[in-house]
Structure to design on (679 residues):
């Protein structure tokens, strides 16, 4: 009998006779949690399971010095109204010590509609900045040197178009494409599964994704071509184990698509980046990040036979979990965000966005964004957790949880493989169904208080008026529509028509569309015009609804 | 238990893709005994009203997280009036600041449920409307 069993049958058994435990303890991923982890729970040996930072399997981190060399990039996702107003917010954030930009686009921009399209009514500048053409991109980066700043763009279906605007605007600043540093989210699969800003059907969408890979591999060596995102699937309700599985399954699909397009794995895999959520369950989240890193390294090595170490590294951005924020007692959200940020940092994130306390109510105010950024700075400069690498490694519990999450994720990936991969799994609604099911289960748990949400279903107070909220100026839409109309008026119409026709013709072939889109961008073709050419050839995706 | 004949259309108007709330509500209402039709994403107010009329629903529930509620709710009310279908109840939820709620109610929206609202509030609301 092991020492742990002995303890359980003697000391523990007596205590349990005297009084029961508070409840049945389960991870948010659904499996029962160890009461007490001990060395017996460690299933694998140190060298193969953990190794050293900067070395396979990267469980302990992707860089040899981690945050002792440089802290993670503090990157607040921001953007609203017009390019003019967002430009001011970016300059403010940079002046406050933020180290990278992250552009939030409004929904019409994310779905390929110009601001004067009837479908854009009511949505212009609401959830992000409206960008209709290269003109807006020039304004957005006015006074911000594009060779010095790294920019992440949350853009998916039309990622090729917005990257073209970015490259073309940089050219006007005198910055060549090879100097550009940043990320395009460019992850269409999770749009079908959870986030919803798709335009085209899966096959042509995957082509655009790999067109961007190929173009960047030759022209923008510092650009992260994709941010394979679990964040939105987690926000839509999936569990931590599902988040790892669905994200890496999408990753597998992108690698396969690029290989099928004739690329060599080591030519593009090093530019793949990932994006995860960080939730309140601190230890499960730390374990999740570590398990994801180890599993991706294994997949790249064993399934895709990558040779370069960099191809096997899961580098990721983290955002704290928007769905955990409560509209009630919003100040409590500061604490949630701090816990979630701590998980991301102890999990070895490369960059981090911290949500603001008022985001269950509206876009954040400048003041609440500052608190969110300060949260990261306090963790980085005061808490000490960044002073040593992978500080929770060796914790019996964290290591056993890391193993367990990896195992659960591998089971899911095997099921997705059986369905024919992530694209097929999405087309069949498998991933959507899993997400919806987990979301509903969670909500029912909240409803009956199996899951306590402080301030929302327990520890409530009478509703107090919240302070100032961010408001979008109603003049935004009018201003933006006027601007796009002017852009269309003041350009060389003949050349515009010629390049749009060339784009459409190229879309009918197997050509890489990126150079054609860049030609259009430089002539101030609008996003809607470019996307409409592609819609004419590719058609539009219609979702089958899964409840 | 709710009257089996009560039919509810749950819809996602506008371009917003955040459908977690809409789907959870649809499932909840279905489990509470209502007949639920879910439209899916990116429905224009015109499409929503057309679907509500052709499906002969008693109520429409919409979910808006994009900040476009100030346009979408009143537009649906207006279209219902134009189609002589004002007997169809409109309720909804999403990221909707408290300050905006009185205006929406004045426009004719029956009820707004904001983040954290218990599911029971929504089922109770419908039950009280369709008790008889």
């Amino acid at each position: 009998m092991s020492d742990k069993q002995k303890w359980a049958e003697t000391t523990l058994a007596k205590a349990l006779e005297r009084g029961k435990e508070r409840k049945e303890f389960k991870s948010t991923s659904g499996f029962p949690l160890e009461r007490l982890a001990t060395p017996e729970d460690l299933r694998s040996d140190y060298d193969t399971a953990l190794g050293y930072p900067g070395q396979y399997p990267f469980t302990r981190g992707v860089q040899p010095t981690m945050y002792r060399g440089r802290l993670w990039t503090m990157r607040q996702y921001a953007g609203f109204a017009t390019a003019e107003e967002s430009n001011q917010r970016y300059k403010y954030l940079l002046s406050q010590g933020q180290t990278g930009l992250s552009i939030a686009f409004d929904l019409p921009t994310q779905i390929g509609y110009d601001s004067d399209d009837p479908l854009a009514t009511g949505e212009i500048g609401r959830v992000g900045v409206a960008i209709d053409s290269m003109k807006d991109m020039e304004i957005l980066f006015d006074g911000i040197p594009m060779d010095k700043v790294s920019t992440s763009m949350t853009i998916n279906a039309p990622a090729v178009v917005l990257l073209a605007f970015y490259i073309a605007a940089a050219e006007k600043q005198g910055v060549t494409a090879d100097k550009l540093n940043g990320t395009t989210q460019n992850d269409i699969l999770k749009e079908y599964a959870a986030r919803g800003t798709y335009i085209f059907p899966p096959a042509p969408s995957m082509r655009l994704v790999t067109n961007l890979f190929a173009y960047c591999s030759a022209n923008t060596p510092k650009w992260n071509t994709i941010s394979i995102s679990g964040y939105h699937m987690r926000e839509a309700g999936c569990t931590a184990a599902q988040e790892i599985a669905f994200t890496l399954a999408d990753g597998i699909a992108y690698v396969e698509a690029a290989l099928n397009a004739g690329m060599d794995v080591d030519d593009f895999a090093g530019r793949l980046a990932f994006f995860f959520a960080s939730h309140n369950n601190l230890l499960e989240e730390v374990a999740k990040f570590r398990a994801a890193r180890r599993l991706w390294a294994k997949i790249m090595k064993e399934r895709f036979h990558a040779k370069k170490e960099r191809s096997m590294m899961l580098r990721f951005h983290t955002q704290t979990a928007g769905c955990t924020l409560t509209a009630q007692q919003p100040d409590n959200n500061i604490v949630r965000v701090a816990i979630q940020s701590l998980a991301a940092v102890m999990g070895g994130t490369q960059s981090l966005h911290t949500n603001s306390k008022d985001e269950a109510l509206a876009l954040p105010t400048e003041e609440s964004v500052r608190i969110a950024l300060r949260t990261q700075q306090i963790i980085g400069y005061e808490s000490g957790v960044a002073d040593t690498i992978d500080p929770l490694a060796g914790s019996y519990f964290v290591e056993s949880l890391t193993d367990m999450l990896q195992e659960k994720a591998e089971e899911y990936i095997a099921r997705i493989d059986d369905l024919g991969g992530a694209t097929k799994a999405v087309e069949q609604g498998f991933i959507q169904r899993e997400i919806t099911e987990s979301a509903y289960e969670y909500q029912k748990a909240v409803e009956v208080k199996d899951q306590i949400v402080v301030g929302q279903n327990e520890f409530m107070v009478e509703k107090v008026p919240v302070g100032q909220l961010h408001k979008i100026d109603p003049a935004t839409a009018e201003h933006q529509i006027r601007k796009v109309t002017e852009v269309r008026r003041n350009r060389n119409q003949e050349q515009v028509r010629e390049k749009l026709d060339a784009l459409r013709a190229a879309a009918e072939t197997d050509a890489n569309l990126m150079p054609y889109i860049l030609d259009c961008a430089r002539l101030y073709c609008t996003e809607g015009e470019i996307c409409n050419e592609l819609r004419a050839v590719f058609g539009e995706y219609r979702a089958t609804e899964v409840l | 238990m709710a009257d089996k004949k009560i039919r509810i259309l749950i819809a996602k108007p506008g371009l917003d893709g955040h459908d977690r709330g809409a789907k959870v509500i649809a499932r909840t209402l279905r489990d509470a005994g209502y007949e639920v039709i879910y439209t899916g994403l990116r429905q224009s107010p015109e499409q929503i009203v057309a679907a509500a009329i052709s499906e002969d629903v008693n109520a429409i529930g919409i979910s808006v997280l994009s900040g476009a509620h100030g346009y979408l709710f009143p537009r649906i009310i207006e279209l219902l009036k134009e189609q002589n279908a004002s007997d169809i109840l409109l309720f909804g939820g999403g990221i909707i600041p408290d300050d905006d709620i009185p205006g929406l109610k004045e426009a004719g929206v029956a009820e707004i449920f904001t983040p954290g609202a218990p599911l029971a509030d929504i089922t109770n609301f419908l039950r009280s409307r369709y008790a008889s």
Q: What stands out?
A: Chain A has a mean pLDDT of 95.
